[in-house]
Write a structure and sequence with these properties.
Elements lengths: L10 H17 L10 E7 L5 E11 L2 E12 L9 E9 L3 E7 L10 E10 L5 E11 L2 E7 L8 E2 L1
Antiparallel strand pairs: 1-2, 1-8, 2-3, 3-6, 4-5, 4-7, 7-8, 7-9
Length: 158
């Protein structure tokens, strides 16, 4: 039986592991990211008000989410978590449209701006999405908001 001196064994194994890790990292798919990840625009919600909205987008492969906070709609009463149903309609690649929807929201105190999301949707690599309308249903009351400005700094590109 052969004995190795301390500190001399395992170098070959360590080198083999390092080469394997580098090879694996080189073959791993690149992480996907949406740019920009945050955008603002203005909405007109008719008799419910008007104001700005901030949209935050994330992406994981073909799944994407958008969270939204807007001063265009304020809550007249306290609203419990997960009780706002929202659908955000976006222009897709300049001509088509797509929708992100969900009913997730934090608790919203009376008099506060409505926050909703994450709203879920599906994207493909290279999709360019820009918000054009938002429909929010709270306590059976539906408000439809239409974009009155372009997203700034620009559309989300996935």
């Amino acid at each position: 039986m052969r004995h190795l001196r301390p500190g001399t064994h395992g170098i070959g194994t360590a080198l083999a592991v390092a080469v394997a890790v580098v090879g694996t990292l080189a073959m791993a798919p690149a992480a996907t990211a949406v740019t920009p990840d945050t955008a603002t625009l203005s909405f007109d919600c008719g008799s419910y008000g008007s104001g700005t909205a901030t949209l935050t987008a994330t992406q994981d492969g073909t799944a994407a989410t958008i969270s939204l906070s807007t001063s265009a709609i304020t809550s007249p009463i306290n609203i419990g978590a997960n009780s706002v149903k929202s659908t955000l309609t976006l222009t897709k690649n300049g001509s088509d449209s797509t929708q992100f929807s969900g009913n997730a929201n934090p608790e919203i105190p009376a008099g506060s701006a409505v926050s909703t999301g994450p709203l879920s949707g599906t994207v493909a690599a290279g999709d360019s999405l820009e918000a054009k309308s938002l429909t929010v249903t709270v306590l059976g009351i539906t408000a439809t908001c239409n974009a009155t400005s372009a997203q700034s700094p620009g559309p989300f590109v996935f």
